[in-house]
Specification:
The protein is α/β, with parallel strands linked by helices. The protein contains eight helices and five strands, in the order βαβαααβαβααβα.
Length: about 170
Amino acid sequence: MEHVILVGMMGAGKTTVGRIISYTTGRSFIDIDQRIEKQTGMSIFEIITKQGEDYFRRIEKDVVLSLSPKLPSVVSTGGGAVMDKEIFSFLKSIGKVVYLKVSPVVLFKRTANTETRPLLKEGNRLHNLQDLLSKREPRYLESDVVIEADDSSPNEVADKIIKRLEL
């Protein structure tokens, strides 16, 4: 048994879908951002605004690389985590990486609360999403499985992943 690792943009539904898969399959659920918040005592927003994105990425890398390959779980990563080659390589080595593919328009609707999304707080949010997606999607597409998630409920997306990975 391997980890099921969900990747994709903020607002793609990684946490929600991950919890459903976890509940359905009986695997534990790990949300990397929540682990970071617990470890630091600060929200992701606070970490990035007070300490900077580079500091956040260092903590994120430590948390991801501390995952145990021996305890298969459902893992929700932060949207930019896989941009680090070492993180992406590690994730692929411990499980199946699943990209939740969502269009910028849908992401725009889902990320309306910029108070918790520091990378979208400044400037035109749709433009920022499109820019981030254009930089990240080539890496996301290297995932083991790509799930189109625009027109599906979280339960439907979870079902697609469970069937595709034969969990």
